[in-house]
Amino acid sequence: MIIQGTLVSSSGTFKSQIRVDGNYIVEVGPNLGQADITFSDDCLIFAGMGDIHIHARDDVSESQTYKEDFCTAGAAAINGGVVHVADMPNNPVPPITDESYHEKARHLAKRNPPIHFTLYAGIGPGTRPLSFAVPYKAYMGPSVGDLFFKTLEQLDETLSHYRGCNVSFHCEDPILLDEHANAATHEAKRPAECEISATRFALQMIEKYDLKGKLCHYSVGEGLPLIREARSRGVRVTCEVTPHHLYFDQSDLTDENRGKMQMNPPLRTISDRQAMLAALREGTLDYLATDHAPHTLEENEQGISGQPHLDTFGAFVTWLILDQKFTPEQAALFCSENPGDFVNPYTSPKKFGKIEPGYTASLTVLNLNQPVTIKREDLKTKCGWSPFEGITFPGSVEAVFIEGRKVR
Ligand SMILES: O=C1C[C@@H](C(=O)O)NC(=O)N1
């Protein structure tokens, strides 16, 4: 099969063709032959986009599958133009911290092709690395689920066993969270200082144990200089940012939408939001990662934290490009290439993130001239709502290919 159109990578945008054989890209160039599928000039062809922070909530206990499962998360991902995801370990009961649960979850995730699921393993008090390579996740303080540390000393001791591993951090300091527990609002209960203090500690841990570190859902401007400084000294740290911390801030909160707008870490100030947009543009933030956290709307209204975002991933990227003036090349970096680099050590023989021979033939095609208004009936997530309902994005997902097959 030959696909033709405007191809985007971090190094440039050019008209070209892609030859696909089976599951893989075998050739890329301008004159490969008669195209089987041609995309118009309104469309941009990206290497398949990846969301490396989601909560699919599927496990053998099935205790959370009324909110989402691997199958509905996969359908929502395809709907949003996402071809691979990395799933968090905190929600299954028990959390996925050992080999047998990780293997069982991998087995469940495989029943639902074609989306590729990379599964994190959790780090909790007293856990140890698995015998096979996985990315790890450490919750510094309580969020949703029972996997977290009550003190940072306990985290330090546990991490001493994970030297050299790939560890992602949920950065909220448990002691400071405790100190603010009686504050009036969700935002005041989890203030910026919790994240800043946790950032300092995570960076120390990454350096001390030579981790390949990642800071999840970054949201505070004041923490960014700490990250830049650590990187300038060669500390191996990358960072995620969510659609909600780029699009919403505390000025969007009303009495009516509080439940829908609750997540950990919470919405911050306008200046934090602007700092996140600037940091994504200049590369301090490396991944658009949604923290897709589906709960029923009733649960959100009763105070549980998290927003679903997979269905709207691609449309949101068109907002970044067209309204926020990100270049398509920047989007290719934080939606395709960097997420690919993150998961590729765990996905062999599949390889994500680039439109090059040898890579998996998974592609995300965005139409920059086809606005979309987000409507509940178009969503595939089982929780059935989106914080973007009623909002019109300037472009939409035109097509999705997964391993050589057009799936949307
Ligand atoms: O860290 C998290 C976890 C997530 C969930 O629902 O599991 N919800 C959130 O808002 N933040």
UniProtKB/TrEMBL annotation:
Keywords: Hydrolase. The keyword Hydrolase applies. The keyword Hydrolase applies. Residues 238-407 form the Amidohydrolase-related domain. Pfam families: Amidohydro_1. Its EC number is 3.5.2.3. One of its GO terms (biological process) is purine nucleobase catabolic process. One of its GO terms (molecular function) is allantoinase activity. It is an enzyme of class 3 (hydrolase). GO terms for cellular component: cytoplasm. This is Dihydroorotase.
